[in-house]
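Comment thread on ticket #2218

A.B. wrote:
> Attaching the input chain for the structure job we discussed in standup.
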Amino acid sequence: MNNKDNKNNSKISKKSVVLTPDFVAKNIYDNVKRFPFKKVLDVGCYNGNLSQFFKRKKNVELIGLDIDDEYKDNFDKFLHLDFINCKKEDFDFKPDLILTNPPFGRNQEFNALYPDLFL
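C.D. wrote:
> Ran it. Output below, let me know if you need it in another format.
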């Protein structure tokens, strides 16, 4: 599978978006809000449902990363990238906190789960 096929495959799988339930997103926020983070990266962010509660904290930059840029305005900064193909050089910042609800399917080319490929 080449890079173009991987991007097309990502767009196909993106049509089956599973949003993080609000109560889960709120629970995650409540468990980490006391920590001193300034830059929050939401990988596979889609509309920002997972990171929505982080907007409440002052002086936090919310950064979204997704192949779909329809909701890019929901973030302070947005990276229009396929997280499977992004590289360290694509980031001009160091996040203090990374949130993700990525597709949990298996990438055929690498025979690995998508979250494992990002990490």
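A.B. wrote:
> Thanks. Noting for the ticket: Residues 79 and 91 are 9 Å apart (CA to CA).
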